[in-house]
Specification:
Length: 95
Protein backbone atom coordinates (compact mmCIF):
# COMPACT_ATOMS: atom_id res chain seq x y z
CA UNK A 1 0.00 0.00 0.00
CA UNK A 2 1.38 3.42 -0.89
CA UNK A 3 2.05 6.17 1.62
CA UNK A 4 -0.40 8.45 -0.18
CA UNK A 5 -3.13 5.83 0.10
CA UNK A 6 -2.42 5.29 3.82
CA UNK A 7 -2.52 9.05 4.45
CA UNK A 8 -5.84 9.22 2.60
CA UNK A 9 -7.29 6.46 4.79
CA UNK A 10 -6.12 8.15 8.00
CA UNK A 11 -7.53 11.48 6.82
CA UNK A 12 -10.86 9.81 6.04
CA UNK A 13 -10.94 8.17 9.49
CA UNK A 14 -10.14 11.52 11.11
CA UNK A 15 -12.95 13.24 9.22
CA UNK A 16 -15.40 10.49 10.16
CA UNK A 17 -14.51 10.57 13.87
CA UNK A 18 -14.69 14.37 13.85
CA UNK A 19 -18.11 14.28 12.17
CA UNK A 20 -19.39 11.57 14.56
CA UNK A 21 -18.20 13.62 17.51
CA UNK A 22 -20.03 16.70 16.24
CA UNK A 23 -23.18 14.63 15.69
CA UNK A 24 -23.02 13.21 19.22
CA UNK A 25 -22.54 16.70 20.67
CA UNK A 26 -25.54 17.93 18.68
CA UNK A 27 -27.67 15.02 19.94
CA UNK A 28 -26.58 15.70 23.51
CA UNK A 29 -27.35 19.40 23.27
CA UNK A 30 -30.65 18.58 21.58
CA UNK A 31 -31.94 16.83 24.67
CA UNK A 32 -30.34 13.38 24.82
CA UNK A 33 -28.28 14.28 27.86
CA UNK A 34 -27.33 10.85 29.10
CA UNK A 35 -23.98 9.62 30.40
CA UNK A 36 -23.67 7.08 27.58
CA UNK A 37 -23.62 9.77 24.89
CA UNK A 38 -21.27 11.93 26.96
CA UNK A 39 -18.96 8.93 27.38
CA UNK A 40 -19.01 8.28 23.62
CA UNK A 41 -18.06 11.93 23.04
CA UNK A 42 -15.16 11.55 25.48
CA UNK A 43 -13.99 8.39 23.69
CA UNK A 44 -14.07 10.09 20.31
CA UNK A 45 -12.26 13.14 21.66
CA UNK A 46 -9.56 10.93 23.18
CA UNK A 47 -8.94 9.45 19.74
CA UNK A 48 -8.84 12.94 18.20
CA UNK A 49 -6.38 14.14 20.87
CA UNK A 50 -4.15 11.15 20.19
CA UNK A 51 -4.22 11.80 16.46
CA UNK A 52 -3.49 15.51 16.89
CA UNK A 53 -0.53 14.67 19.16
CA UNK A 54 0.89 12.18 16.69
CA UNK A 55 0.41 14.39 13.65
CA UNK A 56 1.96 17.49 15.21
CA UNK A 57 -1.15 19.68 15.04
CA UNK A 58 -0.78 22.00 18.06
CA UNK A 59 -3.89 24.09 17.33
CA UNK A 60 -6.08 21.02 16.92
CA UNK A 61 -4.51 19.41 19.96
CA UNK A 62 -5.26 22.43 22.15
CA UNK A 63 -8.88 22.58 20.96
CA UNK A 64 -9.46 18.84 21.43
CA UNK A 65 -7.86 18.92 24.90
CA UNK A 66 -10.18 21.73 25.97
CA UNK A 67 -13.19 19.86 24.62
CA UNK A 68 -12.04 16.63 26.24
CA UNK A 69 -11.72 18.31 29.64
CA UNK A 70 -15.20 19.82 29.31
CA UNK A 71 -16.84 16.55 28.29
CA UNK A 72 -15.04 14.55 30.97
CA UNK A 73 -16.44 16.95 33.55
CA UNK A 74 -19.91 16.77 31.98
CA UNK A 75 -19.79 12.96 32.06
CA UNK A 76 -18.77 12.91 35.72
CA UNK A 77 -21.55 15.36 36.59
CA UNK A 78 -24.15 13.23 34.80
CA UNK A 79 -22.94 10.07 36.53
CA UNK A 80 -23.05 11.80 39.92
CA UNK A 81 -26.59 13.02 39.27
CA UNK A 82 -27.65 9.53 38.24
CA UNK A 83 -26.14 8.08 41.42
CA UNK A 84 -27.91 10.72 43.53
CA UNK A 85 -31.25 9.87 41.90
CA UNK A 86 -30.72 6.17 42.54
CA UNK A 87 -29.81 6.82 46.17
CA UNK A 88 -32.99 8.83 46.66
CA UNK A 89 -35.14 6.17 44.99
CA UNK A 90 -33.72 3.19 46.88
CA UNK A 91 -35.40 2.89 50.25
CA UNK A 92 -33.09 2.18 53.14
CA UNK A 93 -34.26 -0.73 55.25
CA UNK A 94 -33.31 -0.47 58.88
CA UNK A 95 -33.80 -3.48 61.16
Amino acid sequence: MSDIHEISIVKQELEQIHAKTCLLMTQFIGGHQCPKIAHMIVSHLQWLVSHARNSGSPNSLEMYLQLLEHWQQATQLLLARRADRRDKQDPVIIH
